[in-house]
Amino acid sequence: MTTTAPTAPLLDVKDLRVSFPGRGFRAKPVEVLHGVDLSIAPGEALGVVGESGSGKTTIGRAVLGLVKPSGGSMTFAGRDITAATAKERRALARDIQVVFQDPYTSLNPAMEIGDILSEPLVVQGATPKDARARVRTLLDQVGLPSDAVHRLPREFSGGQRQRVAIARALAPEPKLIVCDEPVSALDLSTQARVLDLFIDIQRRTGVAYMFISHDLAVVRHVSHRVGVLYRGDMVETGPGDKVTSAPDHPYTQKLLLAAPVSDPVAQRQRREERQRRAQEAREQVQPAGVV
Amino acid sequence: MIAYVLRRLLTGVVLAVLVTFITFLLLSPSFDSVVQNRLGQIANPDAAAALKADLGLDRPLLVQYLDWLGGVFRGDFGTSYFTSQQVDVAVVDRLAVTLSLVLVSLFLSAVISIVLGVVAAYRGGVIDRIAQSVSLAGHLIPSLLVAIVFVYLFAVKLQWLPATGYTPLSEDPLGWLKSITIPVIALTIGGAANLMAQVRGAMIDELNKDYVRTLRTRGISTRSIVLKHVLRNAAGPALTVLSLEFLTMLGGALIIENVFALPGFGAYAFAASLQADIPVIMGITAFAVMLVVVVNLITDLINGWLNPKARVL
Amino acid sequence: MTELEVVDAEVASKDEKTPRVGRRSPWRRMLRDPQAVITGAVILAFVVLGLLADVIPSHGPNEASLQAFNADVGTEGYPLGADASGRDILSRLLHSINTSMISGVIGAGVALVIGVTFGLIGGYLGPRVRGTTEWIFALVQTFPGLLLLIVLTPITKGDYRATMLIFGVLLAPGIYRIVRNQVLGVKNELYVDAARVSGLTNRRIMSRHILLSVRGPVIIAAAFMFGTAIALQSGLAFLGVGSSGVPSFGAMISEGFTNLYSEPTQFLWPSLALGILTASLVLLGNAMRDAFQGARPKAAKITAPKLAGEAAAATSATAAEAEATSLLVVEDLAIAYPTPSGELRTVVDGVSLRLNAGETLGVVGESGSGKTQTAFAVLGVLPPEAVITRGSIRLDGRELLGLSEAELRPLRGRSIAYVPQEPMSNLNPSFTIGAQLVEGLRSSGSMSKQEARERVLALLGRVGIPDPERTFRSYPHQISGGMAQRVLIAGAVASRPMVLIADEPTTALDVTVQAEILDLLRDLQAELGMAVLLVTHNFGVVADICDRIAVMQKGQVVETGLTTQIFSAPQHAYTRMLLGAILDEETVRTDGPVAAPVPLGTDAR
After folding, report:
1. What are the pLDDT digits (tens) for C72-107?
2. Which domain holds residue A271?
3. Residues 147 to 186 of B: which have CB under 8 A from any C CB?
């Protein structure tokens, strides 16, 4: 290790804590992330898996600056961004981008695709002419026709809208894209194609992904490394194939066994294995309960 | 629950103090016209100054206001500059007239719009078209014109009902009913039009929700689905409109009372403001604000009862 | 890439929920709406007449002439006659238009400026700022409006413009509330988050993204407030508030009113003018609402699906044979929806299914394939606009199509039951879980309250709810989604139905909960001997629970067969494509991270 540059993480999150104000009068704040560590290398795809309420979306929003951390630190390309000001955040928009889950609400229904894509470029100081040229390149990159520029989001299907959202994220040539359940709202056949587009773009541009999903299969498909989140704690991190196929942590094992396989025979085996384990867990608990 | 009501009433009192204070400040430039109204245009300056001092209008504004407020808390709203009548007595008298009008109209509007709105929402068809046309017509014509046309038709031409005047309920119930019929109709048309659109809309919103389909698949009768499940959930938004409608009608009553020469709140306020009768204006403002506070409180309490999520404990 | 486009485009055209709204802007749409055009023209005519108020009549509005006292209509120089003071009614009418218009502009304008400004601020900035603006506008709304305007006459010195200024302030809370609600709604939209991540400033987000989406409701509200301001100014003038030198409809009506018995036309003209003007404004406002927000909601009828044409045609011979073994038979079912142009668009086109007693049939397809529509048709709960254009649905040999809502009711719950997709939205938020389940059980009318209560408690325990007593007393928002789905399953199986129709029963749930719910459905099916029709898009769920599968695409069943057969040897190209798109356990990402970025697009940084 002579130079630190290639191995230095692009994003380094240490002991990240996030609390939301409690509901009701003088309620205690609720902590949804209890000290999460993660790091993403340049060009890497880190999958973050978890069920509802695990805090997976909150991690992404904290990295994007959409929620304020209540503790811990976030370092991006060597700079501390934990308490970035609004102005610093705007500057970070060049480097950190996002693709959200719902392609129906993540695009302003009243704006044409061309405006949606060129707006961030113009804000970052591009001339309108350059922006227009770049928008055409972007549309081509995500596999949309260039006449999409003058059309409204509602004229596109879910899969196509998600391509627009990907193009918008790519516009400033970012180093990291936070992808929050980007294929969950899509149909099966569309899902696979959009995932392939993500992988293809990463190979060509070297952008890093934080790929958040509830679906082990999706995460397995795109991630180099995977972290498993359970009720605000990262319970397991490791190489993608290892974590998603032969996990160590009991929760990840439970998650894997609960996900049905698309094969009646294999699924019967998996189901029996899951039911056997659940039975064991009950038997372990019951004597304790009796005593 | 009781603590909640008390807290709301207390904030209501604070609000009333604030509103009356602002009103008082706004009225202060017209103090001179009080004197003018009492003594006539060409009064001698000494007499004017003497009267001003006599009424206490020459003191600092804050002192005057606090003096008035102190009186109110002792139950003394002062007396009119011009009739020497006790303000609270007079206001309560007038309020009885206005509230008869407004409450009866509100009740009628609610009944009409709930019946028509509900049926229109879940049956559609002809009834829906009728309901929508009635609602639109009510919106289209200003209630002032409705009132005048009705007076012309039923009182002047057909002579079925008295054109003007008010008979108190305690004196002659039938006479009371006759005296408020046309004004109530005039107020109800506008109110029902607005409310019916709301009830229909809220009902349709609820009817399109998933749980309605699920209730149907359990074999529950349409009657129970509409009247028990859907109406209860639609009642919240409609109730909010109803409470706003109360305010609107209070304003509308002002004009309607004038058309029918009813001795109501509005006519009283109008007379007082023309003369700049400060104690009367202040008393009317205080009563009106408290009325609004109480109506809003009742609305919130009913809403809490209807909606378990918004329930206050 | 071309193949991609084809698939996506198909999905778009099949999307049932979003009506294809034209590309035209709301303003352009209004130009094609006769109501908007006519009322707009009427208002424009009023404006023009008002502008010509000094040109058309030969007298000034306050010019009194003794000779013209109560002059008749058509008198020389007084085309509409003159009033009791000998003033020209036409001239007064035209000048009254200007008074009304100025009132409307001031009232609505002030309300707009104040309401929009503070609505944006209160909605977009933090809760503390909102608390303050909220409080101030609540205060403004507590002012008894009309009363205040009358009371303040000494301050406005009778100038109606000053009065309208104050009235605008009093109207502002209405606009404020609309804007604030819209902003609060829009603010949490993902596209606003996306704009922030794109590095846009708060100001730009507000003006570009938020104002754009709140524009519609605000313009509509302003149109109505314009009318309100005019009506109020007339009302005040009618009462005699304000300077008598200003010609106004209200003042003219008031004068006409006193003369009503002798000279009814003096009352007629201003009433007619005011009536037409306000009616036009209301109708224009309604037309605007239609243009900006789409047509107003249609009545939501509760009724069994409409039939058209050859629906419920006689059972064919081959079908009669199958009848012997099949509990539920769907034959050649077609469902269509009317389009705006009046034609019917078919969304389910000739679907045939058979469900045997005790088996689980999976109906699989992507969005827009018509699978849910088919399920709803079987239950008789299609949306009221839907039309069944042909086909037959038979349960245990009895034709269901053509039965009325009342005839279907005894079958529902007892013969055929339903488990929905979204657990939360399928429970009535205002009633306790217990009350909702008890009502379903007792709808047949034979069970006592106590009996039903005990049965519901037992059911809740059976579907795996840990504390049935407590859940019985709970409201839906007090339980989790997984628990809510168990409650809905309990509600569905309460009366031991023969057929259970489950529409994506696990899609909204976490995988661990999904596994438990599927186990529960399997157990209940064995216990009660139910036939289950499971609608899903998830092949994992199908592999787990279904005996047979029907694959649907574009409203048609393209392939039916045993689950094992279809997974091992799919026949139809579409089925093969779907199975190929599954992200199975073997598709693990193998290539390592590319550390050195190759810049995308035109330039390298």
Report:
1. 777 777 878 788 777 888 888 899 999 999 999 999
2. 249-286
3. 148, 152, 156
Packing angle between helix C264-293 and helix B125-140, nearest 10 degrees? 120
For position B115, which CATH number holds?
A: 1.10.3720.10
Q: Using CB atoms, which chains have 3+ pairs under 8 A with B?
A: C
Distance in Å, alpha carbon of A35 to nearest chain C alpha carbon: 23
- Find, among B302, A59, A262, the residue nearest to C585 by Cα: A262
Give yes or no: residues A41 and A8 share one domain: yes
Same domain, A36 and A89: yes
pLDDT of residue C77: 76
A42 occurs within a structural domain: yes
pTM, whole model, 2 decimals?
A: 0.82
Q: Highest mean pLDDT range out of A82-96, C151-165, C240-254?
A: A82-96
d(CA C72, CA C256): 14
CB atoms within 10 A of CB C555: 24
The whole-angstrom separation of Cα C599 and Cα A207 is 9
Is any Cβ of chain B less than 8 angstroms from the Cβ of C315?
A: no
- Interface partners of A (3+ CB pairs, < 8 Å)? C
Tens digits of residue pLDDT in C128-186: 788 888 888 887 877 767 777 877 776 777 788 888 998 999 889 888 988 888 888 78
Give the fold, CATH level 3, of C324-580.
Rossmann fold (3.40.50)
Residue A28 lies in a domain: yes
Return the residue matching tokens 């009008």.
B101
| Element spanning C287, H or E | helix C264-293
Kindly identify which residue of chain C lies nearest to residue A66, measuring between CA atoms.
Answer: C193
B124 CB within 8 Å of a chain C CB: yes
Q: How far is CA B270 from the centre of its chain?
A: 16
Does the domain at C33-57+88-293 match CATH 1.25.10.10? Answer given as no
Beta bridge partners of A236: A228
Residue A36 sits in a domain of what CATH number? 3.40.50.300
Using the structure block, give the residue that is written with the tokens 């209301």.
C282
- Contact status, residue B280 vs residue C139, Cβ threshold 8 Å: no
Dump pLDDT digits (tens) for C524-558: 999 999 999 999 999 999 999 999 999 999 999 99
Please enumerate, as own/partner, the contacts of B29-34 that have beta carbons within 8 Å and a separation of 24 or more: B29/C154, B29/C155, B30/B276, B30/C154, B30/C155, B31/B57, B31/B276, B31/B278, B33/B276, B33/C154, B34/B81, B34/B275, B34/B276, B34/B277, B34/B278
Looking at the 3D structure of chain B, how many domains does it have? 1
Q: Is C278 on the interface with B (CB under 8 A)?
A: yes
Q: How many domains does chain A have?
A: 2
Residues A31 and A74 in one domain: yes
User: For an interface test with C, which of A87, A262, A269, A277 has the most C Cβ atoms less than 10 Å from its Cβ?
Assistant: A262
Domain boundaries, chain C: 33-57+88-293, 324-580
User: Is the confidence at residue C16, as pLDDT, over 70?
Assistant: no
How far apart (Å, rounded) are the C-alpha atoms in residues A56 and A32?
9
For chain A, the maximum distance between any two Cα atoms, rounded to a whole number of angstroms, is 76
For an interface test with B, which of C35, C100, C150, C385 has the most B Cβ atoms less than 10 Å from its Cβ?
Answer: C150
Range of lowest pLDDT (C148-152, C510-514, C569-573): C148-152
Question: CA of A143, closest CA in chain C: separation in Å?
Answer: 6
What's the mean pLDDT when you consider all of chain C?
Answer: 83
CA distance C492 to chain A (A): 24
User: Order of strands across the sheet with A11-20?
Assistant: A30-40, A11-20, A71-76, A79-80
Mean pLDDT of chain A: 87
* Closest chain C residue by Cα to residue B122: C301
Contact A157 C15 (CB under 8 A): yes
* 3-class SS letters over C380-434: CCCCCCCEEEEEEEEECCEECCCCCHHHHCCCECCCEEEECCCCHHHCCCCCCHH
* Phi, psi (rounded to 5 degrees) for C5: -60, -45
